[in-house]
Amino acid sequence: MSATTADRETETASIREALRTALREELLADDDVFIMGQDEEDGGSFEVTAGLHDEFGFDRVRNTPISEAAQVGAGVGAAATGMRPVVNLSFADFVGVCFDQVMNQAGKTRYMFGGASEVPLTIRAIEGAGLNAAAQHSGTVHTLVAHLPGVKAVAPGTPAAAKGLMKSAVRSDDPVVFFENKTIYERHGPVPVDDDFTVPIGEASVEQEGEDVTVVATQRLLGESLAAARDVDASVEVIDPRSLYPLDTDTLAASLRKTGRLVVADESPLSYGLHAEIVTRVVEDAFWSVDAPVQRVGVPDTPIPFSPSQEDEVVPDADDVRRAIERTF
Amino acid sequence: MAQTLDTPAARRDALRRMLLVREFENRVRDRFADNEIPGFVHLSQGQEAVAVGACTALTDDDYITSTHRAHGHSLAKGLEPDRLLAELYGKEAGYCGGRGGSMHVADLDNGMLGAQPIVGASVPLGTGAGITAQLTDADWVATVFCGDGSVAAGQVHEAINLAATWHLPVVFVVENNQYSEGMTFDEQHNVEDLAEMAAGYGIPGEIVDGQDVTAVYETVAAARERALAGDGPTFVEAKTYRYRGHFEGDEEPYRTREEVEEWEAERDPIDLYREELAAAGELTDDQFEAMRADVAETMDEAVEFARNADEPAPEDAYDDVFVEPAPEVEAFRERMRTDGGDGGDGR
Questions:
Q1: Residue B258 CB contacts under 8 Å (≥ 6 apart), including other chains
Q2: Rounded (10°) angle between helices B154-165 and A68-80
Q3: Global ipTM
């Protein structure tokens, strides 16, 4: 189930390329799809959409003024009247200036209208620390969004998941916020080449099987966790949940039943966040399988500092994951 | 096709629709006071000419977005009073199955894209409908109703600027009823006329007498033509007045009774239009009384319908979060209903 690339022809691609391919394929497949964001004519933030404006023109790939509230609010209006907008937030921290539209418009419109509307809106939100961009351009905010009823949230850690989930997000009749970690755009991996390939929203991926401890790791920390797994004297199962809401509790709980040990690695602040949700879900379903205290790896509730030495201090890496694994033994 | 005000029959129909809005809200006021209607409601008596004048210029295919004061816009756009009232009662037969209530009523079949109690949120939403119209070369436009209070909100400026920059087919109708909640216009704005702001977006700004249904109709019809021609949005400021408080139960310490009564006596949009039609020989007293009786009967039936309509099934509260049943919602609901738990694996 999780081996989404099995039996498919693949090519090696980066996460950036995988996202671009997914968006291009969906623009080609459906005239209702259009992209709007700042600097989209020049490829948008981090050049994910590079070339798409030249290929599809202004109608389909358009520059917006710097006004996230209007972008997302108009995205909801366009979606509710029949389009499939993809709205780009250059930095996920900016969800702060359009949170009303995400929380009260995107997330509640269908419900308030008694099911009489669909809101097939995709919001791309670029998050994560590591580029010395300081506190307002480095945050990981997916917990805030995943908490909102009526909004789906995905955060891929591999190129294949990036492509498959982006296509699912654009095709979804529900609002989906698509979180991209800005430091792993150049992570390469096998990506199915066919344009029918999708990754279902709500399905986790067992990236590495193991017997002794389960590490649930998102985005950048997926790679860090796979590296950490090589450095410990234990058989580590590494799972990318990929979809934060809905969350594939079954796959995570099944892994804990097998290993009895759990580490959750996610770049969110540690309090009240995704870690807590994953731990709670898994423990609710597999409490009697827990053999050791559960461990969290994340940012210790600070904003992200600017100075490289301080940023390195607060942002978790493979060593933090390794120590967390070791604490479970 | 849009309706017009070109014939005596059309003008009488516009008057009837204003009366319907007035009577609908009078009933809502009374039924709310009797605790029949849950939640809170915001009424628009005094502003009927804006809703009816603007919507007369629109076709069934045009979209509107509205504010927390949405009953008039909804009825003017073609929603039926019985189902609208049932929505206010929280009943299954309401336009949103009782999920939205007065502040969130919507009916996409009638181009009513939603009341928006978050002040200003109607503006980006309608702008988005304008994007759809532009991208699909549609022969409809989006008309955004928002209040003078919303023009103090950031997202309003963002959205109008976006619509202006992209020449979207949108008509912004700002209902300046002179009060934002309990605050006066002067407390909210440093301009005489909100329409001045249109210059800042590079779009036309029109000021219209919001008590004059003909003037509103003509202004919005012209703005709609402009939008359809690809010339972009128009900012229409309709000067009007609300007779009731911000919400029902508002004690209105911010204004005098005399001020309200003066507007009711001198500038009531229904009285003004009735007098105009009568002076033109298009409306007799008998015709007006018959119209009023007809509206009263319609509302009697609507109240009975709403009162007697079924409550929505409580368990349906879990539907429509997403297009498909939401797995988390189902799982959590299941777990909360279960006595005890075994931690999933048994002991």
A1: none
A2: 70
A3: 0.94
